[in-house]
């Protein structure tokens, strides 16, 4: 089933309505409450909002539990049924999705082995990933000292309530795992680069950065983008001209570079043997091997009337049933 984007946005609009009300209350309290009580009220309000947000996530998930949402969901389920921890790599073009790195399929497969249907197994992975990304972003803002400010609350809950985020929380997709991996990298990078004193767990954080690099590349080819995140945070710290950066930044930066290099060395034999040796590419695609005529026809329909194409994406219409295949 493919709900229209307008259906997916319903929970978003309800939550944002409540969020705007809370932000207005926080703004009003800032003008009438003493500083001490104001801080307590902000923390109290944000905590309640966090619980409300998690409730909405679970509510939306239960409402769509077992409904196969997402493009190519049947191809994803096909890999879940065929893959195994003892054989994580299927034939490169054995099925439409088998060329992808295996981590997201293996995680859903582990739940599937407990007797859970494959569609629900994949949805559970998506729910945990979205909630994990939200909590990690919340922890990052708390570390930065902006979580209980008006701007911090608005940033956290608006970005976490975007229609795409709502969709990911109940869909079947291997993209969703990139959210918690990227947010975890952001959290580690902030702890490594943003504060005057070296973090007491710096070595553990460097190791976590290495593990997250590995996990990202074993989930999707787009995991290569994660390698840039710690360096972007470091450059932002330099741009902010934090004085301690010039004395402590260099050593930490070199350690993060080493973590990235070791991750690439560990990943190279996997990518070489499984991808490059047969396709002459480290990031192959199945776009030139499956349903070429359908791809051409779909592009022609799209390009013939682009305004109508985009209008249909955001027009409410009955859910469409599709058959695997």
Strand percent estimate: under 5%
Structural class: mainly alpha
Q: What is the helix/strand order?
A: HHHHHHHHHHHHHH
Enumerate how many helices there are, as a single number. 14
Beta strands, count: 0
Helix fraction? 55-70%
Instruction: Sketch the major β-sheet.
Output: none
Mean pLDDT: 80
Which stretches are low in confidence, meaning pLDDT under 50 for 5 or more residues running?
A: 1-9, 32-38, 319-325
Question: What overall form do the CA principal axes indicate?
Answer: globular
Straight-line distance between termini: 14 Å
> Any idea what the radius of gyration is?
22 Å
List keywords for this structure.
325 residues, mainly alpha, globular, disordered N terminus
Describe the structure.
The protein has helices spanning 5-8, 10-32, 35-63, 73-82, 103-112, 118-144, 150-159, 163-168, 178-193, 202-217, 229-239, 245-279, 292-304, 306-313. By secondary structure, the chain is an all-alpha fold. Helix 4 packs across helix 5. The chain is globular.
Structure described in brief:
The chain has 325 residues and is an all-alpha fold. It has helices at 5-8, 10-32, 35-63, 73-82, 103-112, 118-144, 150-159, 163-168, 178-193, 202-217, 229-239, 245-279, 292-304, 306-313.
Question: What order do the helices and strands come in, and which of them pair?
Answer:
Layout: H1 5-8, H2 10-32, H3 35-63, H4 73-82, H5 103-112, H6 118-144, H7 150-159, H8 163-168, H9 178-193, H10 202-217, H11 229-239, H12 245-279, H13 292-304, H14 306-313
Helix pairs in contact: 2-3, 2-7, 4-5, 5-6, 6-9, 9-10, 9-11, 10-12, 11-12
